[in-house]
C-alpha cells in the first residue's frame, strides 16, 4: 500500500495541491485496505514530510489497525458515548453522566439504569433533544 500512497502523492503534487481527501468507500478501500463504512484518507503531496492519515471513528479501532498498513497514520475520533452491542435499537451510554439513551421509532428515551425495573420500557423518559450529549 505504501507504493499506492507514493503514486497518488505524485499526482497530488502534479495537480498543485497539498492534500487529497479520499472519502468514497471504494476508493478508500483501494488506497488503504480499510473496509469499514466510515473513514476518510488524507494523502499528502509530500509523504516524506507529511504522513498519510486515515481517519475513522471509535467503532473501527480494531478493524482499522488490522486492515490498514503501517504506512498510514491512524486517527480515531472519540467521544464520551459508549455503544451497547447489538440491541437492534440504537442504545448509547454517555460516560460522564452514566445516562443511557435509546432510540425508539422517532423518539429518544433516556434512563439512568437498565436493571431493577419490572417494566423496563416505562422507566425510560422521553428526551428528543438529548440534553448534554455531544453530537457525533
Write a brief caption for the model.
This protein is α+β, with helices and mostly antiparallel strands and about 140 residues long. The chain is about 20% helix and about 30% strand.
Could you walk me through the main structural features you see in this protein, from its secondary elements to its overall organization?
The structure is a single chain. The strands form 2 sheets. Strands 5-6-7-8-9 form a 5-stranded antiparallel sheet, with no helix packed on it. The protein has a 4-stranded mixed sheet with strand order 1-2-3-4. The chain has 136 residues and is of the alpha+beta class. It is built from 3 helices and 9 strands.
Share of residues in strands: 25-35%
Helical content (DSSP H or I, runs of 4+): 10-25%
Per DSSP E runs of 2 or more residues, the count of β-strands stands at: 9
Tell me the major beta sheet. 5 strands, antiparallel
Q: Give the radius of gyration.
A: 20 Å
- SSE order: HEHEEHEEEEEE
What is the overall shape? elongated
Strand arrangement within the widest β-sheet reads: 5-6-7-8-9
Low-confidence stretches: 82-87, 117-121, 127-131
Q: What's the tally of helices? A: 3
In round numbers, the mean pLDDT is 75
Alpha carbon gap, first and last residue: 30 Å
What is the strand and helix layout of this fold?
Layout (H helix, E strand, L loop, with lengths): L1 H13 L4 E4 L2 H8 L7 E5 L7 E6 L3 H7 L4 E6 L3 E3 L7 E4 L4 E6 L2 E5 L13 E2 L10
Parallel strand pairs: 3-4
Antiparallel strand pairs: 1-2, 2-3, 5-6, 6-7, 7-8, 8-9
Amino acid at each position: 500500500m505504501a507504493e499506492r500512497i507514493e503514486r497518488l502523492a505524485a499526482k497530488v503534487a502534479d495537480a498543485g495541491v497539498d492534500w487529497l481527501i479520499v472519502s468514497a468507500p471504494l476508493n478508500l478501500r483501494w488506497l488503504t485496505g480499510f473496509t469499514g463504512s466510515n473513514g476518510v484518507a488524507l494523502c499528502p503531496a509530500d509523504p516524506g514530510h507529511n504522513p498519510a492519515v486515515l481517519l475513522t471513528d471509535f467503532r473501527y479501532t480494531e478493524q482499522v489497525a488490522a486492515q490498514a498498513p503501517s504506512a498510514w497514520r491512524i486517527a480515531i475520533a472519540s467521544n464520551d458515548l459508549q455503544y451497547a452491542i447489538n440491541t437492534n435499537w440504537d442504545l448509547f451510554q454517555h460516560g460522564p453522566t452514566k445516562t443511557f439513551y435509546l432510540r425508539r421509532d422517532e423518539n429518544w428515551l433516556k434512563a439512568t439504569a437498565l436493571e431493577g425495573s419490572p417494566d423496563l420500557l416505562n422507566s425510560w423518559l422521553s428526551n428528543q433533544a438529548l440534553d448534554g450529549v455531544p453530537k457525533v
